[in-house]
Amino acid sequence: MNTTSRTITGITMIVLGLVLTILGIFIYVTLIYGIPMLIVGAFILFNKKEDKIEKIKKRGKK
Fold first, then answer.
1. CB–CB of 21/35 below 8 Å?
2. What is the pTM of this model?
C-alpha cells in the first residue's frame, strides 16, 4: 500500500469508527464495530514499516 492509499484508508476508517462509536452511545451494538475500526484505522495510518522491502539473504551456492 503506498502513502496515498494508506492515508485515505486510515482516515476513512478512523472517521467511520468515530461515527460508529458515537452512535454506540445510543445503540450499543455499533460499539462492537466502531472501536476495532478505530484501532485498525490508526494502525494503517501510522504504520510506516510496511513499505520497506527486505533483502533476500542467500543461503548457499546452487
1. yes
2. 0.74
